[in-house]
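Table S7 (text form). Paired inputs.
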Amino acid sequence: MEINSDIIQENINKAKQGDQKAFNFLLDTFWNDVYGFLLLRTKNENDAEDITIRAFSRAFDRIESYDTSFKFKTWLITISKNIHIDLIRKQKSRIMHQTSHEDDDEVYNIADDAPSAEDILIREQNLNKLLRYIKKLKPHYQEVINLRYFQELSYDEIAQTLDEPLNNIKVKLLRARKLLAEIITNK
């Protein structure tokens, strides 16, 4: 049997009335055209088949809206092309969404430089040990260590505070550090 436009139109009319045989006829008649078109676009047999199935499903759901001034094949291919475009947009959107979330994760997963409770406890214990060692120094060495490392004064500020020459302060700090290192090493 030769398939001509009259037979196609007759089956379209039957399909509009819900005739299952007419749907099968249209599917069999136009499957290769729609599938071939999508295969060229997607270059993937599985994607082409999936989109072709969706295209026929959508076309048959909306067969009432088919305008007979267009060829049925053109209408089907247009539907399939639109489905393919929608899928590409969704994939791009998903990729962009994943990328932006990955970027967010990178931003939000920055290592926390704030000391933990354990770090604070260890630092306090070490500081207490250090203070005990410093107390073993002579008072004038304790004073320069305190001014320099705990009050963070410059050499000039220490010299002014203690009313001593700058060179004396430098020597005292050098001597205090050396004695403190010996105390710590001996413990």
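Next pair, protein 2 of 2.
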Amino acid sequence: MKDIINESLSKAISYPEYRGLVSNLLLEKKSTGPNQSDDLYNYSLLNDRRMKRLDKTSKLTNATIDKVTKLSTPQTWLVLTEGWCGDAAQNLPVLHKIAEASDKIDLKLVLRDENLPLMDAFLTNGGRSIPKLVALGENKEVLFTWGPRPSTATKMIADYKEEHGKVDAHIKQELQVWYNKNKGENIQEDIVSLL
């Protein structure tokens, strides 16, 4: 496991570098990842706009600031993501703000499809769901994982899937409305509970 983590860390980029990568690919009418399609490009374009907005408007709660400023040991937050992922677009700006609030958190991002051994070590219910945060201690030990969605959103999707048998456009729309109303508070509650 340590070799897989070290390999992914060697390819990791910062949040600003990730934002630049996604934006530059969009100029070429591309998304991240090996698969390219109009749909993935359009999702990436929408997500780039979302992230720009969230970078400006996301606010940390007092509870989050209090918790992260009291961390005593360094952590590396290694996050698997892709530019076309709607959940990543909603959550990465908040994770970035949390990391920025602490001198003990180093946020690093890797692309899922370029780091499948890491992704496969941290599946969610057997799937390669992203974003996936793997928090590492000073010796690269796994402290906790989080993702791909805040706990309330995870329950929304699970309940809908149970009732309707699948995730469809309707629940995806409801999920985006929920993200907009929640303003990143649920992910902050989740992360604070894990620290």
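The chain is about 55% helix and 10% strand.
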